[in-house]
Amino acid sequence: MAANNRPETLIPKLGVVTDIRIDTPDVKTFRVVTPDGKKAFDHKPGQCAMLSIPGVGEAMFSITSSPTNEEYMEFSIKKCGCLTDWLHAMEVGQQITIRGPYGNAFPVDTAFVGQNLLFIAGGIGLAPLRSVINYVRHYRDRYGRVDIVYGSRSMHDLVDYEEIIHEWCAEEGIQVHLTIDRAQDGWDGHVGFVPNYVTELDFHPDCIGVICGPPIMIKFTLSALEKMGFSKDQVYTTMEMRMKCGIGKCGRCNIGNKYVCKDGPVFRFDQLDELPEEYD
Amino acid sequence: MQRIGVFVCWCGSNIAATVDVHAVAEAARHEPGVVFSTDYQYMCSQAGQNMIIEAVKEHHLTGLVICSCSPRMHEATFRKTAANAGINPYMVEIANIREQCSWVHKDMAAGTEKAIILAKAAIAKVHLNTALTPGESKVTKRALVIGGGIAGIQTALDIAEAGFPVDIVEKEPTIGGKMAQLDKTFPTLDCAACILTPKMVDAAQNENIRIISYAQVEEVGGFVGNFHVKIRKKARFVNEDVCTGCGLCTEKCPQKKVPNAFNLNMDNHRAIYIPFAQAVPKVAVIDPNYCTMLKTGKCGVCAKVCTAGAIDYKQQDQIIEEEYGAIVAATGYNPISVEKFDEFAYSQSKDVITSLEFERLTNAAGPTAGKLLRPSDGEHPHTIVFVQCVGSRCAANAAKGKEYCSKICCMYTAKHAMLVRDKYPDTDVYVFYIDVRTPGKNFDEFYRRAVEEYGVHYIKGMVGKITPENGKLKVQGSDLIADKQLHIDADLVVLAAAIEPDKSARPLATMLTASMDTNDFFTEAHPKLRPVESPTAGIFLSGTCQGPKDIPETVSQASAAAAKVIGLLSKNTLKGNPCVAQSDEWMCNGCSSCANVCPYGAITYENKEFRMPDRSTKVRRIAKVNPAVCQGCGACTVACPSGAMDLNGFKNNQIMAEVDAICK
Amino acid sequence: MREVMVISMMKKCAKSNLTALLHALSVYAPLYLPVNGNGKDTRAKYTRYEDGMVYSTDLNTVRSAKDFFFPQTENLVNFKVEGKNIEIIDPRTEEEDFILFGVRACDFKSFDVLDRVFLSEPVDSYYASRRAHGIIFTMACTRPAETCFCTTFGINPAEPAGDVSCYMTEADLYLDAKTERGEAILAKLEDLLTDTDSTDIKTVEDQKTCIASRMEKLPLAALSTEKFGGDKLDTLFDDPRWESLSEACLACGTCTYVCPTCQCYDIKDFNTGHGVCRFRYWDSCMYSEFTKMSAGQPRLTQMQRFRQRFMHKLVYYPANNDGLFSCVGCGRCLASCPISMNIVKVMKTFSEEVSDNGSK
Amino acid sequence: MQTITRDILLEKAASLLASGTVNRVLGWKKGEFIYDVTPAVFTNAEDMYRHFTFDCFCGANFSKYLIKETQKEGKVLVFLKPCDSYSFNQLLTEHRFDREKVYAVGIPCDGMMDASTVKALAPEGLTGAERNGDALILHTLYDGDVTVSYADHLPDRCKHCKSKKVVAYDEMLGENGEVTDAGRFDEVAALEAMTEDERFAFWQNELSRCIRCNACRDVCPACTCEKCVFDNPGSGVENKAISDRFEEKLFHVIRAFHVAGRCTDCGECSRVCPQNIPLHLLNRKFIYDIDRNYGDYMAGAEEGSRAPLVNYQIADPEAGEVVSGAGGDKV
Amino acid sequence: MQVNENNEFRPKIVAFCCNWCSYAGADLAGNNRLAYPADIKIIRVPCSCRVNPMFILRAFQRGADGVILCGCHPGDCHYTSGNYYTRRRMAMLFSMLNYLGIEKERTRVEWVSAAEGAKFAATMQDFAEKVKALGPNKRLEDLRCKQ
Question: How far is A199 from chain B (nearest CA, A)?
Fold first, then answer.
């Protein structure tokens, strides 16, 4: 019973897991559709959804598939707690619940249009960016040059490796720069931490930066970009917080007066500067 | 999320007759996490076990539920099966649908319903099972025996005979203990020294035995198989390796007024002395409280007369640190102090003596060279009254005395009475008793001889008062059988004082984390089934430190303890039970509740530095469970309010999952 | 919630008829009103009216009236799980009208504060539905207590609004319908009500004047919001005085639970053995677990959590809601805090120019 | 008996601060009204002269704050009333803080007023109060000054005080009192004398008011777990709010059980309960049962004593034989 | 709450049994085919002292009508002292539950040795009857867990 025929926000929809891809030892990507085989809802790049297993818990995850994919949604999820353990143990055909989309999105149709784009991700931080990158690839002619810097602990911890190698790298106008933290057999690419690699690559500040990864990586990458002449109002990031409702009401994900689930998760660094330094 | 296989056993018709096994298997199949469910005639048979192994492989099972007979029956079997199938043996849970279901419920519907619930409970539990691996620890192949009385000597000898090195720590300058002070032993009346001293010599000569005399345990750390012990060897001011035990110094020492503890202070020895002729080690020792040289720096006679040059006035206490695999407590007993029993006038008259003093008075090596003479005037006593149960079998709330029976007094009093009558037939001997207890081989015969052949007057009753008067001791007592008051003018009164554990036992127990009862006797791990072990693993009990005993009993227990020690030391490593308690160090607040209830002393505390979420560091007191010592009872888990303490195999959430499944 | 404002004639009910009035209201719809407790705690609490109950004249209830729209626990949705399949069940039944009687001006204002959270997009339908069905009779505060400071937030206890504003005098109860809904319900009570004349209006006006003068004399009357508001983040957030203010805080949730405007909640699944109930519970920003997640904890110290609560009420909320503070000055936290730390002490501390430490 | 006044405590604190014995003082800070004093840490005498207060509303038990305070540098001065000193000892027994970092000054006490009790006497506005011997003069907004008997309106914990003896201190101000037992089990016994149905109705009514604010737990000096089972999602009983009336019973029974034998009967739980639930009657029930069945035991009376529920006697009564009802009824 | 075809109330009873004595006693009852009501479901614990009061309340919450705890006789505990702690803990807990008005017949501690199969069966029979006579547990129920 939804009052005034408004969409019911706290009652989820049913989802079915139709495919599970093992990305890394602790990351799996789940494909989710409704029981009648449709996409659960439309979203914009950078938005999130609440996934849940009844009795186990509910949590917010970035939607990693591009909105341009009209068949299904994908979620790349790292195993790091009770719910994600459960999700990782699922088999194809398992039903879950899903509600969303939540939060703002990257300004792909406004600020990004016509710009060169630089995506920088570390580890599972690629998940929220993948949606944007694929969106940009889909509407390739709307944007300028695209650079992607992606690093992880080891080559086995690179999420979406197949897609990166076979699709992104192969696409003209996209430069992919991969790196891993420590040298290992079978890897002939770059070795080193993402912020250092970004410094080495020495990007020209004629583009918009998007950073996502562990807090420490974000911090150092931002300062690396600033040294290259980037200003904070041209760099974006996406945040993570404990969220329960996803609709800016439960009261826990705020930084100052901004609610990460509703006003975020995408923030420009100059916007973050206006907020109290509570979350570092 | 587990992948669970459920296997329902028919046990022939034992289960299948009252439980619909197919229905159980079918119901289990619908439980979350169950990916395979089946039933079979005999799950424990080779074929049944193979079926399990196959299913594990085919369905990649991670947890097994066997609905069968009692886990007490076949849990071990199915754990092995699991191991053979390549999964951890502790990923198995048994639903007992035979003893606790099919055999006790006649109604098929009720039995089936219950079996399904029991299966669901086991499934709920196995969901939360985790792989457990028994911990292993090495065993130091050396034993420590604390106490060098007959108990300690016997234990040490047996262990040494089995080929393991063993140290005896004795607080006196010589081993031998109480038995060395005794004259004759009941019921055979052979001389104590004659049977003890050869054993003392054996101990001294056994190359596997090291005697650390005049020494005390100061610190015990570690756990079963790996004890680390600090022993303080007191300075004797005589070089043990050099002294030949010739005894010249003990004759030349000018300080003659040192009470002779071995003779219960009934005579004196010199400031340098050898406790008794057959002492082991036979090495002199200087009593620093009396030695003029040590007190004033003037004298040095002993050093002058010692041709071996063994005297060393500068000798210091020595600390010996050693690793042991097992520790045996053999700290023995002492008679209680009878001074507080005013009615017996022990403090008022020298002629009221204890039984142990009586032993010394009749011993050929004693202060009277074996002649029975009154301590007050050296006269031969003509009337002797023995009083039994002095301080034994007292009311629980009595201000003095012990609640328990000291066990040995009846027999040694009979022995004393008999010996007196035998040597001095002119002596009248009276024994006041509450009951005469003679449950031992040849004990009752012995006692009856005392009464029948030797004419000892046994009087059932207690002595009310003893009054020294004109060189006599007026003994007032009651004869309960004749129902009259008795007055006996005695020359000598011998009190059969209760025995109590040696005072050194309590601090030792604390160091060993071995439990004691309210009387300070060591508690055994199980009063019937594990009588020579302390609940603390690796600690064994020998002799009267565990409870009153006579010599034969002491020796048998000493050998039993030795057998247990040998069993332990013959292992290279100890494999623990993995179902032990575990403390979550982030949740523990170090309150000590768990350690208070642990019967095994398995819990210790440490101050550990933690890196807090705000990146500061904090030192927190936290509990640590030693898995080698913990036996897995779980008492600590309930004592812990925060739930920081949990028990592997029976975790809080596992039991609650069972509860939930059952009450659903 | 937007209401249609009406101007109609005030009605009057003799106090001797109050019982009959309450009975009539309870027949119309379930009626909740403050009633004194009968156990160890005799203070007023909102109770479903049954005949024989007596309306409490206590200034206010221990718990606020927010429970009626945002209950402490609420079953959001149920699930049945079998194998890989999930069934989603909405447990709600059709909401019925209910009457809240005796709501004070501060509590009534708190509904506005809550509305701006729960009724902003996306709307919380659970809240919205109850809000739509709640008919509110407010009551003017004739004897405000020393802990009252509603006027600080611009609330007038003499004009409590609601569907019907009530004024209690020695002899009568005056009922002033403020909405169509209020009017409609008063129409149904016709038998028990009489019209008012100019004397009555004067009586009520006198009472209002009296209330105003009493409010002015209250110890907290001078409390000012001058130092607070949506634009005061920079001056307040890093103030060292948060440290000493929060020092004694026990980290219990009393203030947040008695507060009429606190609206933080948590959602949790409860496995009943037969299915899963998804519950919403009041949560408290004072609890250390509140923001804890597997990846870290943004508010690690009690100081940070304490600061969050007051910054939210005095800075963040006004920043997002046109300067409206998320405090209505009801004084419940003043009465309930185990260590007597409260928003008044916080506001007064920051109103002092120089802190104890000599720093700003 | 010397009356302890604000001035005496101030002087003591100032001299200990001046001598460097302590570098801060745990004391009471005056509030807006008379009854709303807040525990505070003072680092200098000047602050104390301005804000420190001591009167009959200074009932808060400071001992639990010592866990946090002793983590800091230097020694802290704490004033211990008799009942606080029991909690102090109990916390020491459980190794919850370092004794060396505390300078404890014992102060006698003849009962502390409780804000909610006093407010109940003048529910419509209490602007101030003062004590004059047994007279408590309340200044009210609408009824002028009202004088009541001090002793008669003490909270239950003080009316039925367990002890007026400070059992732990470095220094005692004034004269130490004696252990008392002012009928503190009377109310428990009265409940025991009821029928099961009556008791159920009583507790149902009382506990149903619980809002699970956790104030009772958070103030309790025996509740010092690093993480309470009710906050720990892994414990299986975690809960934040009462969603079923079972849970209020679960919470309060388990909490009382966890502190059984460790509770020093300081009564803070009942004092802080915003819903006036007589929580101390649960704790006193355990204390009463323990005393009757296992011998008198007062947690905190002696540092290092072993709590009765982590102890046993072979001769303990059987579970079905314990005396736990009125007139020696067995339950 | 369960009812059978005759609409007769069938209590749910949880019995916690220590592994060494009472669980073995229950097995012995089985060996000797000594019947007792199927309403009793046994949970095996290493020692009665493993039983946390939370388990007992949990059982009532989830729908149990009675909870019985069985352990070794005092003095016979496999772990020497576990049941002594149990005795105190449960005496105190049950007294408290009764203080809250919970019927005292719903909780019980009984010592059953491994040799007392007959005592086990008789105890269970008796306990089940007493609980049945009380009817469903209303005072410690959790309404959410009712079907």
Answer: 28
Q: Do chains E and A touch (3 or more CB pairs under 8 A)?
A: no
The structure tokens listed for D124 are 């419509």
Is the CB of residue C128 less than 8 Å from the CB of residue C119? yes
Q: What's E27's domain CATH number?
A: 3.40.50
- Look at the pTM and tell me if it is higher than 0.90: no
For residue C296, give the DSSP letter: B
Q: Tell me which of C301 and A32 has the higher pLDDT.
A: A32
In DSSP notation, B177-236 reads GGGGG-SEETTTTEEHHHHHHHHHHHHHH-TTEEEE-SEEEEEEEEETTEEEEEEEEPP-
Instruction: Tell me the two tokens of residue B321.
Output: 């640190």
Interval B80-117: pLDDT, tens: 999 999 999 999 999 999 999 999 999 999 999 999 99
- Asked if the structure places residue E146 within a domain, the reply is no
Q: How many structural domains are present in chain A?
A: 2
* Closest chain D residue to the Cα of C286, Cα to Cα: D213
Structure-token pair, residue D137: 């003069």
Q: Hey, is the C-beta of D200 within 8 angstroms of any chain E C-beta?
A: yes
Nearest-CA distance from C359 to chain D in Å?
Answer: 14
Chain E residue numbers touching C277 (CB-CB < 8 A): 144
Task: Compare all CA atoms of chain C with the CA of D124 and give the residue at the minimum distance.
Answer: C145
- The closest alpha carbon to A246, from A59, A79, A65, A92, belongs to A59
Q: For residue C271, give the chain A residue with the closest CA.
A: A55
* Same-domain check for residues A137 and A199: yes
Q: Which residues of B touch C296 (CB under 8 A)?
A: 613
The verdict on a CB contact (< 8 Å) between D213 and C143 is no
> How many helices and strands in chain D, by DSSP H and E?
12, 8
Residue of B nearest to D234 (CA): B653
E4 touches chain C (CB under 8 A): no
Interface contact flag, D226 B587, Cβ < 8 Å = yes
Enclosing domain of residue E68? 11-140
Q: Please tell me which chains touch A, using 3 or more CB pairs under 8 Å as the contact test.
A: B, C
- Residue E51: inside a domain: yes
State whether residue B619 is helix, strand or coil.
Answer: strand
- The answer to whether the complex's ipTM is over 0.90 is yes
Peptide bond into E53 cis (omega under 30): no
Residues A265 and A138 in one domain: yes
Q: How far is A63 from chain B (nearest CA, A)?
A: 24
Question: Closest chain B residue to A83 measured between Cα atoms?
Answer: B1
Residues A265 and A126 occupy one common structural domain: yes
Confidence class for position A7, pLDDT limits 50, 70, 90: low
Say which CATH number the domain at A129 has: 3.40.50.80
Q: Which domains are delineated in chain B?
A: 4-127 (3.40.50), 143-227+324-332+502-569 (3.50.50.60), 248-305 (no CATH), 336-498 (3.50.50.60), 581-648 (3.30.70.3270)
Q: Tell me the residue range of the domain where A96 lies.
A: 8-102
C-alpha closest to that of C106 among C161, C136, C168, C150: C150
Q: Which of E35, E51, E89 sits opposite B106 (nearest CB)?
A: E35
Task: Return the closest-CA partner of residue C239 out of C344, C346, C144.
Answer: C346
Residues E71, E47 contacting (CB under 8 angstroms)? yes
Q: What are the tens digits of pLDDT across the range E13-54?
A: 999 999 988 999 999 999 999 999 999 999 999 999 999 999
A107 inside domain: no
Q: Which of D6, D78, D76 is nearest to D48 (CA)?
A: D6
Determine contact, residues D54/D5, Cβ cutoff 8 Å. Answer: yes
Q: State how far the Cα of E82 lies from the Cα of B635, in Å rounded to an integer.
A: 6
Which run of H or E residues covers position A255? strand A254-255
Beta bridge partners of D52: D29
**Cβ pair D96:B642 closer than 8 A:** no
